[in-house]
Amino acid sequence: MPHSTSTAATPMKPFSRSLQRDLNAAVDDDDGKQHSADDGDGKQNTERGLRRPSRLFYLALLYTVFWALVFYHHFSTSSQQSGSAEVAAPTVLQLKPSAFFSAYRFFRRDPCAGRYVYTYDLPPRFNADLVRQCNRVSISSHVCKDVSHDGFGPPITGGGEGGSLPERGAYDTDQFMLSIIFHARMRRYECLTADPAAAAVVYIPFYAGLDAAMHLDNKDLAARDALSRDLMDWLAQRPEWRAMGGRDHLLVSGRGTWDFLRSPDSTGWGNTLMTYDLAIRNATFLSTDASPRHGNDFAVPFPSHFHPSSDAEVTDWQDRMRRLDRAWLWCFAGWPRAHGVGMGPERAQIIEQCGKSSRCSLLGKLNNYVPMRLLESAKFCMQPRGDGYTRKSTFDSILAGCIPVFFHPVSAYLQYTWHLPRDYRTYSVFIPHGDVVGRNVSIEEVLRRIPSEKVAQMRERVIQLIPTVMYRHPAAKGLTFKDAFDVALDRVLHRVAKRRRAAAEGREYVDSVDGRDSWKYDRMLEDGQNKIGPHEFDQYL
């Protein structure tokens, strides 16, 4: 029966009519010919190819899904907020700006993707109890003062003695408080997660440095090792540890690696945290003095005295260091050591040469007993080895805008590869230890030969490094620079990500080895080389 024409069909909306026309449009068959939806007599054309949705169809579908998500979020939020009302108001479709922003958040990339950190809630015996028992540290009577203010120690007001520190953000910080400082920052880290399965890195907030300090002079080896072994037994029971065998775990020791490397069958220095159970070697250790012969520990800067809370505090301090009139060519902020100790002859030569020079200053010389004030008054600051290969004064001198002078590559160049430039010549001077001790090379003559333009460039590079080697205040917000914590965590995340990719491909990622070439894995392979080879520092190791 023919269709009636007496009743007009309801007109379609332009968008719907366009969509329907497109769905009924001609399609190509395998021969490339086009056929309409019917043959003109109302009969279906059997040669027609299979109809396929067009791009416009998919656009309409996406459009519908998008608004469905917006409406769903809007109404679900509204119903939750009004759930406690006794009488519900009539539902009115009223889109608020929050609906649009929520939809935006739904589609935007997660800023914490690949950066989530899960922190163990350790029993207090591994951290908080150690802080409360600070008076048990026999090697220092000031530890209970040092652990205050999240490990920063007491605030220093008025710029400190001689006005050598900033007016704000200065603290009397002890060099061994890094584990507490790091934990304080991690508690406020913007990408923490309560789901270990979503974490890129698992953080172990064990105050290993405090534990070691309490037992360094204890002849009872079992007591010296007790808490470290307790930690390993605790970790071994955790599913988070077993998931990757600890390869995604991070621990900040707060002291030099040497304090944790005693062999279980030895009676020597330190405890067995890094040797009792070799599984711990899968984790990443951060220390202030790493071993060039071990592949899982990485050096991070000693904490200095400035912990800023704003970008302005940092830039103001940098500008101040640029304007300083430096009266001395070089200086040394340190004291002699016994000649029988490895760094003793090195220091003795530095002190002797400086004492005879009119262009060098020492602590105590001309009644100058303020280390930071001394560092700020010189162009070059001597950095011989300290208790270990490294020393806190390296970072005090950078904070003071003073160019560091090293006498052994392990004092900085093989240690702080995450925080200091690869090209050590851009920010420091290297005078080999043997030249000073064995050949009586004049330190001052080496420094005087450096052109003034080069000195200015080096000092500017040092001043630019200041934000990178300091630890900002943990409560600070809105800062744009990356401090030592940020730099270290970025590198740990990068290291673990490579391990995860390898595990997903069913292979073990070898990113470190122990032995004489261990230090090269981080320094040489990260520079783009494909294999370990000879290096200019081989002769010093």
From TrEMBL:
<keyword id="KW-0472">Membrane</keyword>
<feature type="domain" description="Exostosin GT47">
    <location>
        <begin position="112"/>
        <end position="446"/>
    </location>
</feature>
<keyword id="KW-0328">Glycosyltransferase</keyword>
<protein>
    <recommendedName>
        <fullName>Exostosin GT47 domain-containing protein</fullName>
    </recommendedName>
</protein>
<dbReference type="GO" id="GO:0000139">
    <property type="term" value="C:Golgi membrane"/>
</dbReference>
<feature type="compositionally biased region" description="Basic and acidic residues">
    <location>
        <begin position="32"/>
        <end position="47"/>
    </location>
</feature>
<dbReference type="GO" id="GO:0016757">
    <property type="term" value="F:glycosyltransferase activity"/>
</dbReference>
<comment type="similarity">
    <text>Belongs to the glycosyltransferase 47 family.</text>
</comment>
<dbReference type="InterPro" id="IPR040911">
    <property type="entry name" value="Exostosin_GT47"/>
</dbReference>
<keyword id="KW-0735">Signal-anchor</keyword>
<feature type="transmembrane region" description="Helical">
    <location>
        <begin position="56"/>
        <end position="75"/>
    </location>
</feature>
<dbReference type="InterPro" id="IPR004263">
    <property type="entry name" value="Exostosin"/>
</dbReference>
<keyword id="KW-0333">Golgi apparatus</keyword>
<keyword id="KW-0808">Transferase</keyword>
<dbReference type="Pfam" id="PF03016">
    <property type="entry name" value="Exostosin_GT47"/>
</dbReference>
<keyword id="KW-0812">Transmembrane</keyword>
<keyword id="KW-1133">Transmembrane helix</keyword>
<feature type="region of interest" description="Disordered">
    <location>
        <begin position="1"/>
        <end position="47"/>
    </location>
</feature>
